[in-house]
């Protein structure tokens, strides 16, 4: 049996690993459009500071895949997929046959179509190539503006700041991390960011980016402007659906899957950022890992069921560790604060049931809080 996995993120590696654990006889192939072996995408921002080298980003060394008889094809894009003949075509004309297919194609960084977004000095951060381009520019940059006050945006701001660059964060909402923390948590993080020298531009909407050949400033819709020789967009992601469309799979926002991670076509699975389960697309590492395990195992012959795990995020910036899990806001959600020393801890309830938690403080408490939801 030939199991082919498209996508080299954590969902793809988890799928390949699980498939091999279920079947020693299956041919397992992992195809990645990137030129690098799968790496810790979560560490990309940290790499900006210059504290990590490229090798330390890898999930596993090349020998790890060889030992598990997982064939890895790098730097190849899937340009054709035929269900009838069960074949994929790569951009160089190579034909890859499959019996079971797992789509872990992930997502790409969304760049709003604002005027000037194609100027030199404007970036997104989603992969290692993006990161290298940003790090090269960071060596000479003086003022960087990060568009988006979510997890990735704040990480980028923090690590660029550590390089001595003046950094600003622009956020459409009136507070930071609007999806991950409540108002109180946002205020704690905003104060920490300001103390670290980061300028915050909250409740601001970008109108355009200006410059002659290179970015020189950004202009808001209210007419105000701030200088910049570097702009990084962190404004969300969109799933890669090209292969799904080639195969005429059922798609809503992402590829629709059932509890076995099976798509609308038999023997074709999906997992990670590209997959939509019960209307949800969390787009976070732990979910991608778990979905990948289920998809890979079932592609190899198992019948495992995916049990959704609560969305969770860990952020370490500005001298703070922020951990959120589950639901921390919404209609009918109440909260109870139980600080421990300098640690801010809040629990959230709905209909008398614990549905979420927020911790700002000691990283050692993260596992204690996480256990409440296991």
Helix fraction by DSSP (H/I, runs of at least 4): 10-25%
CATH architecture of the largest domain, please? Answer: 3-Layer(bba) Sandwich
C-alpha geometry: globular
Radius of gyration: 22 Å
CATH class of the largest domain: Alpha Beta
Uncertain runs are none
Q: What portion of residues belong to β-strands?
A: 25-35%
Q: What's the pLDDT, averaged over the residues?
A: 94
Ends distance = 35 Å
Major sheet: order of its strands? 3-2-1-7-19
Biggest sheet, open or closed, and with what strands and sense? 5 strands, parallel
Write out key terms for the chains shown.
374 residues; alpha/beta; FAD/NAD(P)-binding domain; 3 domains; 5-stranded parallel β-sheet; 25 strands
Structure explained in plain terms:
Pfam families: Pyr_redox_2, Rubredoxin_C. Residues 311-372 form the NADH-rubredoxin oxidoreductase C-terminal domain. This is Nitrate reductase. Residues 1-292 form the FAD/NAD(P)-binding domain. The structure is a single chain. This protein is an alpha/beta fold and 374 residues long. The chain folds into three domains: 2-108 and 237-299, FAD/NAD(P)-binding domain (3-Layer(bba) Sandwich); 122-233, FAD/NAD(P)-binding domain; 319-371, no CATH class. The protein has nine helices and 25 strands. β21 (312-317) and β22 form a beta hairpin. α1 runs parallel beside α8. The relative contact order is 0.15.
């Amino acid at each position: 049996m030939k199991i082919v996995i498209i996508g080299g993120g954590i969902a793809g590696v988890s799928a390949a690993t699980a498939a091999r654990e279920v079947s020693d006889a299956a041919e397992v192939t992992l195809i990645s459009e990137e030129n690098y072996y799968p790496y810790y995408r979560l560490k990309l921002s940290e790499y900006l500071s210059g504290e990590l080298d490229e090798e330390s980003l890898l999930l596993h060394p090349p020998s790890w895949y060889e030992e598990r008889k997982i064939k890895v094809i790098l730097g190849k894009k899937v340009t054709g997929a035929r269900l009838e003949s069960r074949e994929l075509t790569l951009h160089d004309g190579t034909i890859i046959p499959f019996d079971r297919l797992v789509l872990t194609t992930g997502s790409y960084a969304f760049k709003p179509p604002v005027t000037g977004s194609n100027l030199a000095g404007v970036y997104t951060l989603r992969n290692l190539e993006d990161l290298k381009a940003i790090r090269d520019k960071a060596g000479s940059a003086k003022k960087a503006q990060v568009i988006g006050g979510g997890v990735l945006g704040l990480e980028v701001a923090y690590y660029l700041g550590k390089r001595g660059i003046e950094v600003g964060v622009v956020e459409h909402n009136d507070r930071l991390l609007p999806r991950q923390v409540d108002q109180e948590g946002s205020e704690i993080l905003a104060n920490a960011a300001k103390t670290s020298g980061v300028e915050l531009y909250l409740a601001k909407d970008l109108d355009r980016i200006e410059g002659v050949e290179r970015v020189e400033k950004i202009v808001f819709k209210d007419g105000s402007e701030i200088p910049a020789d570097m702009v990084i967009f962190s404004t969300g992601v969109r799933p890669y659906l090209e292969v799904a469309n080639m195969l005429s799979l059922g798609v809503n926002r992402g590829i629709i899957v059932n509890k076995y991670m099976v798509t609308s076509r038999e023997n074709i699975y999906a997992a990670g950022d590209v997959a939509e389960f019960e209307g949800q697309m969390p787009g976070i590492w732990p979910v991608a890992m778990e979905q990948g395990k289920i998809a890979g195992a079932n592609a190899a012959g198992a019948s495992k069921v995916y049990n959704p795990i609560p969305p969770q995020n860990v952020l370490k910036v500005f001298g703070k560790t922020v951990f959120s899990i589950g639901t921390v806001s919404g209609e009918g959600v109440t909260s109870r604060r139980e600080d421990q020393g300098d640690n801010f801890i809040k629990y959230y309830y709905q209909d008398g049931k614990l549905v979420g938690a927020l911790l700002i403080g000691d990283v050692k408490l993260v596992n204690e809080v996480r256990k409440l939801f296991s």
